[in-house]
Every structure is written in structure tokens, then in C-alpha cells.
Amino acid sequence: MTQRTWTAGWIEPAQESTTPEPAYSLYEMFVLHAEPPAWTPPETRLWPAKLMKRGFVVADKPVRRATLHMTARGVYQAYVNGELVSDALFAPDYTTYDHLLMYQTYDVSGLVRAGENVWGVILADGWYAGRISQQGNGAQYGDRLSIMGELEVEYADGTSELVRTDAEWRSTTGKYVYSDIQIGEKQDLRLEDKAWASTAVAEGWDEVAEVAAPAAELVAQVGPQVRRREVLDAVKAWPEGDAIVVDFGQVIAGRCRIECDLAEGQELRLEHAEVLDAEGRFFMNIIGRNKDAADAFVGRGGHEVLEPDFTFHGFRYVRLSGWDEAAQGTFDPACIKAVVIYSDLRETGRIRTSDARVNRLLDNILWSQRGNMLSIPTDCPQRERAGWTGDIQVYAPTGCFFMDLHDFLVRWLDQVMADQLDDGQVVDYSPATKDLFASGEFLGAISSSGWGDAIVLVPWQLYREYGDREVLERCYDSMMRWHDFCVKSAAGAFLEEGEKEGDARYIWDTKFNYGEWMLPSYVMGNEGAGPIEAAAVTAPTIATAWLAHVSDVLADISELLGHGDAAAEQRAYAAEVRRAFADRFWDGKKLDADFQGCYVDALAFDMLPEAERAAAADRLVELIHANGDKLDTGFLSVSYLLDVLWDFGHEDVAETLLWQDGCPSWLYEVDRGGTTVWENWGAIASDGTVGALSFNHYAFGCVGDWIVRKVGGLALREPAWAEFDVVPAFVRGFESCELEHETAAGTIRVAWSGSGAGAREVRVSVPEGCRAHVALPGSDEVVVGAGEHVFAC
Ligand code: BGC
Questions:
Q1: Which residue has a Cα nearest atom 6 of ligand 1?
Q2: DSSP 215-274
Q3: Is 26's pLDDT higher than 90?
């Protein structure tokens, strides 16, 4: 894409810099469990969003085209003559603003007119200056907001006009008392001049300041913008104390829209949460500094449609206070809607099985994906809302079934690469915040095995799903640098005592790694145990296994890109790691770290001598039985769990885990009313206790990929689905499954029904240019080309 050459300068509205938050570190939060320093109401320390505008004149002759190009440090909405130029939200998208900033281009031909025109902008803190860090700190990229843009009017006669952001602009504030992504937004409608964006600059507006351009590279918008994607009705509402609780029936990312009368000075307040407590009361499941997730509206006297503009929340329930029954009448839930917001991604996968609970699980997975694909792939849409590398790495195969994630993830990978450190480390989340770099003291690391590996595995997934070789080229240098860091780190290159000797160099135990993150037995209420403790006991095993795995994937990529020598080196290295792993961790019967996930990874990544793998699988099964036939796997092993069991002949155990509905299990969450996938399987404990946790984390939803492959029977063989397998495993408990997947080549459909050998029918629809390898019980594999095919088995 050709990038624009700019002549406009950057301008700042009159403003106060973001108020710094008192120091509060992750160490204080998670180790000392110290309360954050007292904080005051947002009104006292957040500043209003800014209104900015400039008039311009359009000649009285035919206009061929008018185009607006702009961006901001902050998030903006642009208007021409009072009309919003786009329905996109949260522009510019969240990038690693220190390095990369995207500008947007809008066709405004229909909005300009001969004579006087007005270009208006609302500018809010957004991710740039808002309080988005884990600790609730603000100004992660900067503490002052600014914009830059050009509006180009091209006339039919070939002449043109260019209006810029310059000293002619003026700024003021309006109805936005404050707007913060995490805290929420407050609007005082009494302060609104509805005509502000369509009228000439009036007295009282402030001068703007011309400021230096950011050092970040300015690039044209890549990938989809954020939009309102759906609107949900309330399913229920009930009084709770003086407030009203509204249930939308679905955990989402978004915000509410209310249409009602609002008296002058009357304040409506909406707090958002994902669950109710054990007694069915409204329960703020996300706690912490600046995680208010509350919006407020103050009336001016009149009928209003109220919706915040520069915030979003993760929620299913809303606690509405300030409703005045005497004046407004009984609250009618029809007046409130939940607006579902995420990036404008096309859905490309549908799957329905004969089982209602599994279907609900699949819906939950998709809803978690919707909730976590707002501008960047996030861990959760309410707490950190950060682009955690590990989460998307684990989830990407499932994610690419459900949606076309190509451009979205390519854009995100650019952030990952921009954030990469000089020594090759791929930091834990991207865009990286100022606080991420400062938080190393807490864990002693800001990168991890399985997380940083996203730089290898996400492009690999994009290559497989979309056949995009270019993304591999684009990321190759970063992959190599990350791998080099991992190899050196394992070898002890960064240890004070110096490099390790012999085989110890292949064991990655030299730094903090997340290991089996969110290991159920360590995070479900066990005294003295938690995710960090689980990392301590599992990380060397898990990190070493992943090191071999990623070396192999990198070798495949190297080979594909024509770097044969590098590929050979990486394979040889992986073999050394495997040998060292088996020597160090495996005694022929058990692994040192005797946890389910360690066996899963050891088997998934061929870490053990071939002849001894069955014994390891037996031990895995033993552990599962000992755990009441329940899984005990964390982020880095759960996606391989069912496959490993299956491949080692323990199909029945895999089926048991899939159908398990005690805690922890996928169906347990469904039975507990989950409408998304949870961060912690026990977020609602068996006794009903509700945890202050995220109820919208897609990582454990990675089982979706297994369900597509094994229950649905569709698996990729060659990049971009040029060749694929149709191998339904006829998993116990299903009588049918129907799926379709839109690929670049066309739509693949696989549907099977019937129970029992000889009574089943399998229908396959193969797009033009693709071939399906159909392997059904009782017959040899057949390869079929484009068209509809029906098989019996
Ligand atoms: C996030 C995760 C993330 C993890 C890394 C958590 O707080 O919510 O999903 O991957 O930290 O340790």
C-alpha cells in the first residue's frame, strides 16, 4: 500500500496532561497483596475529552471527491458538517504507539458542500493516555493528546484544496466529563452543544498548539476497524436495593445504550459485571485500581439516547442506579440494549453437533473470541485487555476456524515485532505498555516460553490457514532472534555464573517462564498455591519441551523459505534438546514434574524415546483417573491434551474428559451457565462461590480446534486448505455433526449423521482447486476433488 506523504502538522487541544497515578507495582499487587494507594473519584483526576474544529471553504464548483485522512494520539471521532465520517470506533486502533501509528482514510465526498464547512474532532484518552495497565496506571504511551490530519477536496476540474490540522484549529470541551477505556465514561448532557460540529468556531474556544510529530512510523490502516457488531436485548431486569440489575443473557465486550427521558441534573449510573454472586446479586468480578467499568449520564431535561463513545466493558449484567420511578415510570428493560463491539472480522466457521451442551460450549468459545478481538487479540476484555502473546498463540487455530483473522493478526504481529527487545526477547504482551517494561522486577522476566513463541507459531498458523508465505518472510528475522534468545537463555548466557556445561545447556531452567499457567490444581482455591507456584514446579519441563517444539516449527519455516542450513541446525538443536530432556526429566516411568500437562507436552512434542512414550501416556491416564477423570492442564498443554490421549490409544479417556462436567471441565462451565470461556475453570466453584476473575478468556477455548477436527472431522493437510482430511472420529456421544468453513478457495462443508458402523452417512463439499482425503472406518482413504460427495460407513 502506498503511504501518504503529509504536509500537515500535529496539533494539541488546550489540555492538562494526564494526572499521574500514585506508584503501585505488580509486586505490591500480587506478592504483598497490598491495597492500592487511596484513589479519588474519576472526576477529580481525569480530564474531559476534547472537542476540536476548524472551518474551511469549498469552492462553488463540482467536487469529484473529498477524502479525510487522519490519526491521533488518543482515540478520535471525526465529523464533517456535524456528520460522523465513519461508524468505526476507537480509531486509531491499538498499536504499539511509540513505534507504529495507523492513519485512517474516509471518503467524505457526500459530507462537504459549497461554501463554509466544518471539520470537527472529538479526542479522548483511549489506550494512548488512559489508565490501561494491569496496575491501573495511565499515560502508557504519552500524557498529552494530539491529532494530525488532512482533508482533501478534489474538484471535477482537476484542481484541489487541502485542509490541514494547523494553528487555525480551536478546541474546547463538551459533554464528556471523562472518558476512559477501563474506568468508563461520564457525560453531562447539560454541557453539550449539539451543533458544535456543524457551526463555525465561536468565542470561548481555545487556541491549539502545534507540536512535534511523534517518532512512531505512520502507516495506513491495516486490517479491520472496530465497530458495533450486534445489539442485544435485555432478557431480564430486577430491582436490587435502590438499583435495577439488567441481564443481557450473554457475556460480551461492548457497552449499553439506553433510550429514556432524563430530567435536568438526574444522574444515571451503569456498572458492568460478568456474573452474579452465589446469592444471585450483582457482583463486580473485576476489581482493582481504575477498573471501575462504570458509565454515567447526567440529564439536561429531555428524551435521550445514551451511549458512551470512548469506552467498552466486559459484561453480561448491568447495575443501573439513578432511575427515578416517579418521574420515569417503571423501568422497562426494552429501553436498554447491549451493544456488542469488536473488530470488523468476517465469521468463517460454523459447527453444530447433535449435543446441545457441546453446541453451547462452541458458542461460548466464539463469544469469547468476539469479546477478545477488539482491535487486538486480548486475554480478556475487562481486566488487562492486553495482547498477551501466549493466549492467542494457544487459541489461533480455533480462532482461524471461526473468523478470518489474517489481516488482524498480521497487524498485531507488527506490534509484536516492534516491541521485540534488542536481545531478541518477545515481550509478554503487545502492544507493550510502559508498565510492562517496568514490571520485570515482579517476575524477573518480561518474556516467556510459550508466550514469546507466538512470533513463530502465529505466523505459522497464518501460513497454514491462509497460505500466506509473506507473513513468514516478514517475521522470519524476529523469529530467529527470539529463538536465538531462547537458545542462549537455556544455555545460561545471561546467568551471572556464566554459561552452563554439557547437556544442561538444553534445559531451559534459567529464567522465569510461565510453564503450566493457570494449572487447575494450583489455582482453584488451594492454600499457598497459585499460578506463580505452578510455574515454579512445571516451567523447566514445559519450557524445554516447547523449546524443542518451536525449534522444529522454525526449522519447517526455514526450509520453506529456502534457508536449508538454518533448518538443519534447528532440527539438530531440537534433537539435542529432546535427548537432554529425556535424560534429565524422565526415568522411564515418570517425569520429574509429575503433572498431566508435562506428559501431554512431552508426548505432543516427541520428547521421549519412542519405545517409552506409551508408558508416559499410561502415566498421564493414571493421573487423570487419580484426579477423578478430570483434566489438570494449563495454558500450554490443554490444546494437546485430547489429541495426545487419542493418538496413544486412550480415546475413551479423551471422550471422558470432553464429556466430563465436574470441575474442572469444559461442560462444567456450560452447566454453570457460562456464556463464554473462563480464565479459571473454577471461577464459579462447585459450592457456588464466585471468584473475582475473568469470565471471558479464550485460551481454554482452544478445544474448539479439536472438536472441529475430531467431532466435525475436518483437518487441514496443506496450506490454505488446498488439501484437507475428512476423518470424523465418531467421538462417543455424538449422533451427527455439521460444519462449514469458508476458506480462500471456497466453502468446505462436512456433515455426518447416524450412529453405529454401517449406518452413517458423510457428506463432503470440496471447493474448486482443493482435494479432500476422506478416511472412514472400514474403507481405504479416497481422494476426491471439487464437488459434493456422499459416503456411507
Ligand atoms: C492474563 C493471561 C496471561 C497471563 C500471563 C494473566 O493475567 O490474563 O491470560 O497470558 O497473565 O501470565
A1: 379
A2: SSEEEE--SPPEEEEEEEE--EEEEETTEEEEEEEEEEEEEEEEEEEE-TT-EEEEEEES
A3: no
Integer CA distances (angstroms), 103 to 69, 311, 406, 429, in order: 7, 20, 20, 23
Q: What does the pLDDT average to over 247-269?
A: 98
Is the shortest distance between the CB of 380 and ligand 1 below 6 Å?
A: yes
- Looking at the CA of residue 384, tell me the nearest atom of ligand 1: 8
The answer to whether the CB of 695 is under 6 A from ligand 1 is no
Residue 787 C-alpha to ligand 1 middle, in angstroms? 44
Interval between CA 389 and ligand 1 midpoint (Å)? 9
* Each residue's pLDDT tens digit, 382-419: 999 999 999 999 999 999 999 999 999 999 999 999 99
Distance 388 CA to ligand 1 centre (A): 7
Rounded to the nearest whole angstrom, what is the distance from the C-alpha of residue 246 to the centroid of ligand 1? 29
Calpha distance 783→645 (Å, rounded): 27
Of all protein residues, the one whose alpha carbon is nearest to atom 2 of ligand 1 is 379
Mean pLDDT of 444-454: 96
| Summary mean pLDDT of the chain | 96
pLDDT at 58: 98
Decide: 514 in ligand 1 pocket, CB within 6 A: yes
Under 8 Å CB-to-CB from 44, ≥6 apart: which residues? none
Question: Are 64 and 155 a contacting pair, CB within 8 Å?
Answer: yes
pTM, entire model:
0.97
pLDDT band at 1 (very low <50, low <70, confident <90, very high): low
